[in-house]
């Protein structure tokens, strides 16, 4: 069981938290919006129901646990991975990562889900930039094995390998973005994945 923090419990953050707990990890979800935090367990219960109906989940519950935090310091203490899922706002993300760096252990992997923001600028003010990178779980997460990685000019090979190994143990496929545009799945592609059908797009798999 790996201790993981998901920052932001909007639609994507909730799905990521559920998928990680489904795989047996201890997940801490941080948000400064108490209303969103209060709805998290209801939304996770709905995801459990759908997973059971579709035959993806045979256990009565996720193998891991999900905990809610409204205090960032408490949330990131002792975490192995931090996955940020807040709105696409450069200033917001930069200030958030400065706070995360204060409290997270020195070897914690710090990742952003930013789609089009300049990845190097997001982390440029941090001291420990080599452990930072972009990690995008493709929505709706539970049914999509591919995870898009975007390295910065600071990212170390050690950090990249740590992420790749973690994702591989979850049966996820880590790949580098092959162009300037992030991959966004259409409804047809999402349904195809959910129904076990194959579709393809261009990317570079990390081995």
Quick description:
With 207 residues, the protein is an alpha/beta fold. The protein is 37% helix and 19% strand. The protein is built from seven helices and nine strands; from the N terminus they run E-H-E-H-E-H-E-H-E-H-E-E-H-E-H-E.
Amino- and carboxy-terminal Cα gap: 23 Å
Task: Encode the helix/strand succession as letters.
Answer: EHEHEHEHEHEEHEHE
Fourth-tier CATH superfamily name: NAD(P)-binding Rossmann-like Domain
Percentage of residues in DSSP E strands: 15-25%
pLDDT under 50 segments (min length 5)?
197-201
Overall average residue pLDDT = 88
Lateral arrangement of strands in the main beta sheet: 3-2-1-4-5-6-7-8-9
Q: Please identify, by name, the CATH architecture.
A: 3-Layer(aba) Sandwich
Would you tell me which CATH topology applies?
Rossmann fold
CATH top-level class: Alpha Beta
Shape: globular
Structural class: alpha/beta
- Whole-number total of structural domains: 1
Helix content: 25-40%
The count of β-strands is: 9
Can you summarize the main beta sheet? Answer: 9 strands, mixed
* Rg, Cα atoms, Å: 16 Å
Number of helices: 7
